[in-house]
Amino acid sequence: MNSPVIWILFPAILSIPLTILRNNKKLVFSLGIATSIILALLAWVVPADTVLKLGAVEYKLSSTLTILGRELIINSTQQTIILLMYGMTAFWLIGAFAISGPSLFPAASLLMNAFLAASLAVVPFLYAAILIELACLVTLPVFFQSKRMLGSGALRFITFQTMGMTFLLLSGWLLGGVETAPASQIAVLRVLVILGTGLAFMLAIFPFYSWIPMLTEQEDPYFVGFVILSLQTAILFFVLNFLENYAWLRNSLELKQAMLLFGAVMVVTGGVWSAFQKNLGRMFGYAAIVENGLSLITIGLMSFATLRIFSDMLLPRILAFGIWALCLSVIKSSNDSLMVENLKGIAKSKTLIVIGLLVAQFSIGGMPLLAGFPLRVALLQEISFELPGIGWSILVSIVGLWVAGVHTLSVVINSPTPWKKFLVSNIVINFLVAIGVISLIVLGLLPQLYTEVMEKLLLPFAHLL
Amino acid sequence: MPYVVQLLCLILVVAACLIVVIRPGWRVLLTALLAFYFIQFVFLFYSTTTLFAVINLIIGWMAAGVLGYSSHRAGLADESHQIMAGTTFRLLSEFFFILTGFALSRSASYWLTNIPFMAITAALILILTGILLLNYYHQSWQVISSLLVFLAGFELIYYMLESSLLVVMLIGLVKMAFAFTGSYVISLHRQDKSS
Q: Which of A189, A389, B41, B49 has the greatest number of beta carbons closer than 10 A?
């Protein structure tokens, strides 16, 4: 037995019976949730390549699996990332079960995780681009399961990811050449342009991010939230892998400047567009773009402190987007629309859901006392003297997200009808939203609770630390 | 690789690309895909190993076959006859893209030194035609077929640069995933039509 079998092959194989049994929703969701939790726990407690003693029996979980002459390696330093991925899947599947999400969700999420885990494990890591593309393709059946068609957002999503894959594969080949031979400035620039274009397509960097708001508007926000968050997190780790493996790339001033510039543009445009949206799904999408931009800035700064902020941001982001997407999904299923003008006074009939929505939205906006706040402050502290322009761009995005939040708030309470119900009828949804809101507040007040664990995510990238 | 074979393959790619752009319809598109995979096979057969070329041909034809079978069963109608202006516009745009392919291949051949010039040209024309088709088409299965054309061009270049069976298999998996997605979308279209 070895770790790639546990975290890659097993979930991939399990997704087949889960697809076949999709008519039995309760069973597939239970299996999906249980598997995700078990795989997350295993990633936490069973380190690869370490001898474990179970009484008289000694056991060692090997970290390497060889397939077609190449290797998949999941060692103990990568297990925190695996823990995060499967933990997030379990959290999302519980919510999906509560809102009676698509029955293909468990199979798709497990298979997607298997491909994303493989993208972290494959050696040479450049092949990860194909595995990420496969993870994207896995999501398509879920998109058309309910609507019986693929919307323009989903088609654009898969088109951009496919183009991104080709650019990244080509840049991988070129990178090998630049690394082994002293390259001319033109060759280096060519690699950077091709690599940058590939990442722009895959990571939804400006100007290729239009598919995110389209997808969040057209499809079920809960599943889209999962897809965007999982994919973007995996691709960000892929970017870190690039920087880890190529010293000249780490030292490239051009790359650093490009990441900061595009990150700032994403942060500003995402925040400002979010303020002008009339659809809550699109607001959610633009907030995801802001978060991507922030990640790009923290990675682009390439200092130990900002990389720590990058890893620390992941947990509050997962929680906030999870709660936000869950609340949007509940609202969409009852109102059949996420247009702001159709949601007047909804806070009076679904108070807890609206509280969850607003707390998540303001947490992403970095409101004081919520989970996003300490990290925004830490990032602004790091960059305000050195790069005031980037600092201002973050402030502008915060203002944009707050305006969007206040706009939402003013609409959802604006109704002459009396207050009716605080909770919704589904107890699991109430529980999840309440726990989510409390967690966002607790993480905002006590960020030291999770930062130590989250920093372990950076262990595979020793050269960056 | 014999020059005549290279030239024939390139002419075939140009002809197929022109036809596929000016005569929209699933039969033409999928026949063109079969032709593209065959041309890919010829180039790869001379430039890489026979195994790579054969595997790629089989997977490519399987993908096109899956799409073709579903389209036939669903009774997809070919697009109605285009007006002259539309056809002329399509022809001119494809002609422009083919010229762009020829123009780019000269500079691309400076850094893709171990790939035959004609293969680079054919690959670039396929990639650009794929992008052009993506702009013309809006139905799911058409977009998926256009992406397959785009990928066919990319594969032609990439397999000559990177010789890894795992990569061939993984990109093959991507193509099959596209084909099954397209097939499923077409089958839903058929179910909706019959109900």
A: B41
